[in-house]
Structure formats: structure tokens, C-alpha cells
Design a protein that fits this description.
It is a single chain. The protein is an alpha/beta fold. The protein has a domain at 4-132: Rossmann fold. It is 35% helix and 23% strand. It has 6 helices and 9 strands. The strands form 2 sheets. A 7-stranded mixed beta sheet has the order 3-4-2-1-7-8-9. A two-stranded antiparallel sheet has the order 5-6. The radius of gyration is 17 Å and the shape is globular. The model has no long low-confidence stretch (mean pLDDT 88).
């Protein structure tokens, strides 16, 4: 039986750019390679789109982001934490071998919940975090810049995001540099191992 992966992101909508393009290409490749791909994204209403025999998009109701880019709807933790949540039901129905999360903020807690057994019926799929931007850049642009912003980003990435996933992927060496900085003892000296 082919591997099944579920990809969850807040960065997919009809008018978005690079991330949507990469997911659309992945969904198209699912049919060519005969691999099951599922995408869970925020939407206006609950909806399922059958892209092809092997690819499906689940839209879960989500509100527009109150900050940053207000064109995007945002899946919040309370949309996957409760036992009867739509996302939990999707994951249990799909039973993926791999879950990829493309989000550092509101969806990243899913990795921790699966690792500590809060989704026991799901089993233990491989957990992958995909990074398309640096947290220190976002904190510097929207909250606080300089050394304080970089320190906050290293602490969150090294102590929270990094240990919650089995593997980390980045879209560029620049983006990947944040992972290295977050686990390097000299740059994040009190990081939990």
C-alpha cells in the first residue's frame, strides 16, 4: 500500500503565491506517483475537494488572521486539540504515515500533542516541520527587532518547535540557518536537550 501523507498549513488560499503553488504541484504529483496526499487548510466553511484519485483538500472553518496578513484564515490550536474537532476526525479517518506541518505558530503544537500521546488512536506517524520563513524575521518585522527578537526566536525554535518534530525541512539555506542557530549552544545556551 502506498504511503499516505497529510500536510497542514495556514498558508494556502486561492490567491496566495509560492506555498500554494508548491502544494498544488504536490497534489498533481500525487496522481502521477500514485501516492495519497491530503492537505488540511483553513477555509470559510467545511468542505472537501477531491483533486484527483490520490489527492484531497480538506477545508476547515477558520477566521481571518487578526494580525499580520489579514488575507489568510488561521487554524487555531482549539481547532485540533478537542477530541471532537474536525481536524482530529480527519486525521483519524485518514490514518497518515506522515504528517507535515507548515506553520511555526498556531499549528505547531500538533507535533507535541502527537509525540506525548494525545492522539493515541492515530498511532505515531512520522512528524515533519516544513519552514518557508524565519521566525526571527517575523518577530523583527511585527514585534521587536534586534538581539531581543533574535533571542526570542531562537528560544521558541530551539526549545519548542525543534524538539516537537522528527524532521525539519526548509525552503532555503537562509531559512534553515534559523534551525542551526536555535540548537547551537553558543547561540541558545539554555536550550533543553
Amino acid at each position: 500500500m502506498p504511503i499516505k501523507s497529510v500536510h497542514i498549513t495556514n498558508y494556502y488560499h486561492k490567491d496566495s503565491g509560492g506555498i500554494s503553488t508548491s502544494y498544488n504541484n504536490l497534489l498533481a504529483a500525487a496522481e502521477r506517483h500514485r501516492r495519497y496526499i491530503r492537505l488540511i487548510v483553513p477555509g470559510e466553511t467545511e468542505e472537501v475537494e477531491e483533486v484527483n484519485e490520490f489527492a484531497r483538500i480538506y477545508y476547515v472553518p477558520a477566521k481571518f488572521s487578526p494580525v499580520f496578513d489579514k488575507r489568510y484564515r488561521i487554524i487555531m490550536p482549539w481547532q485540533y486539540m478537542p477530541n471532537d474537532s474536525i481536524i482530529r476526525k480527519i486525521l483519524l479517518a485518514e490514518k497518515p504515515d506522515l504528517i507535515e506541518v507548515t506553520d511555526k505558530y498556531t499549528i505547531s503544537m500538533l507535533g507535541a500533542m502527537i509525540r506525548i500521546g494525545k492522539f493515541k488512536q492515530l498511532g505515531r506517524p512520522l512528524l515533519v516541520h516544513f519552514s518557508c520563513e524565519r521566525m526571527d524575521d517575523n518577530i523583527g518585522s511585527f514585534l521587536v527587532g534586534g538581539n531581543i527578537g533574535k533571542w526570542i526566536a531562537r528560544r521558541v525554535m530551539g526549545n519548542y518547535n525543534f524538539p516537537n518534530f522528527d524532521f525539519h525541512l526548509a525552503n532555503s539555506p537562509y531559512t534553515a540557518g534559523e534551525f542551526y542557530d536555535s540548537v547551537e549552544k553558543s547561540k541558545n545556551p539554555r536550550r533543553s536537550d
